């Protein structure tokens, strides 16, 4: 008779990297939140599906201060997945876990405030064309229009556009289109293998995407408040 324990495969541990944003508040925190609110107004979908780490290094906070900080972020739909730089003993049950030894991946350039005459436009007009691939750990942020990548978007990288995203190679990282509040934005790629796709704040991670589209040339659009995938091979 076979021992059930012998029939089970051994436990396997796998490592996986994710692109995360580190928020590091600086005093006065009220002014820092005002800057964060201005960013969210310019790019409503900036934090869509994005893991977020809170860095408390250099801040003198009580547990009550930390609870208030987390509540303010939650109210802005920015969930915190981990905390760096917390004083010993501050974190505990009900709080995000303590993280350490994170590897920096460079700073994400924040978009400038739009000119007054540009704020009335509903569809961004300027485009960005990238002749080289987007490398792992790299973030492309262009809220003024479309982004066209002539090469690949690597795993662990992300492209954030105010308009549509065109990828002429494999899409293996994150593609966030319509980040300035443009529901008409779309995502096109020649080979669909993303970690996440999003349009106007609605997103789907890799595990939520229909595997039938994997490796195919795909268009992603927003239809009736849901993301719709269409293969180029299906025609129009």
UniProtKB/TrEMBL annotation:
<protein>
    <recommendedName>
        <fullName>Probable septum site-determining protein MinC</fullName>
    </recommendedName>
</protein>
<feature type="domain" description="Septum formation inhibitor MinC C-terminal">
    <location>
        <begin position="130"/>
        <end position="228"/>
    </location>
</feature>
<dbReference type="InterPro" id="IPR016098">
    <property type="entry name" value="CAP/MinC_C"/>
</dbReference>
<dbReference type="InterPro" id="IPR005526">
    <property type="entry name" value="Septum_form_inhib_MinC_C"/>
</dbReference>
<dbReference type="Pfam" id="PF03775">
    <property type="entry name" value="MinC_C"/>
</dbReference>
<dbReference type="InterPro" id="IPR036145">
    <property type="entry name" value="MinC_C_sf"/>
</dbReference>
<comment type="subunit">
    <text>Interacts with MinD and FtsZ.</text>
</comment>
<comment type="function">
    <text>Cell division inhibitor that blocks the formation of polar Z ring septums. Rapidly oscillates between the poles of the cell to destabilize FtsZ filaments that have formed before they mature into polar Z rings. Prevents FtsZ polymerization.</text>
</comment>
<dbReference type="InterPro" id="IPR013033">
    <property type="entry name" value="MinC"/>
</dbReference>
<keyword id="KW-0131">Cell cycle</keyword>
<keyword id="KW-0717">Septation</keyword>
<comment type="similarity">
    <text>Belongs to the MinC family.</text>
</comment>
<keyword id="KW-0132">Cell division</keyword>
């Amino acid at each position: 008779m076979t021992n059930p324990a012998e029939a089970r495969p051994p436990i396997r541990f796998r490592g996986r990297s994710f692109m995360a944003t580190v928020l590091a508040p600086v005093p006065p925190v009220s002014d820092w939140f005002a800057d964060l609110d201005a960013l969210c107004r310019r790019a409503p979908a900036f934090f869509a599906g994005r893991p977020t780490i809170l860095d408390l290094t250099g801040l003198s906070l009580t547990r009550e201060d930390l609870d208030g900080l987390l509540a303010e972020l939650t109210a802005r739909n920015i969930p915190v997945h981990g905390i760096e730089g917390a004083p010993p003993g501050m974190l505990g049950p009900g709080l995000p876990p303590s993280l350490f030894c994170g590897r920096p991946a460079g700073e994400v350039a924040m978009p400038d405030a739009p000119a007054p005459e540009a704020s009335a436009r509903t569809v961004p007009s300027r485009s960005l064309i990238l002749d080289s691939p987007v490398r792992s750990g790299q973030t492309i942020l262009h809220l003024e229009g479309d982004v066209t990548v002539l090469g690949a978007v690597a795993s662990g990288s992300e492209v954030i556009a105010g308009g549509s995203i065109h990828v002429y190679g494999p899409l293996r990282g994150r593609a966030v289109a319509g980040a300035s509040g443009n529901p008409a934005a779309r995502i096109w790629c020649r080979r669909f293998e993303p970690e996440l796709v999003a349009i106007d704040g609605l997103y789907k991670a890799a595990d939520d995407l229909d595997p039938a589209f994997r490796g195919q040339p795909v268009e992603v659009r927003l239809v009736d408040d849901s993301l719709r995938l269409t293969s180029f091979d299906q025609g129009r």
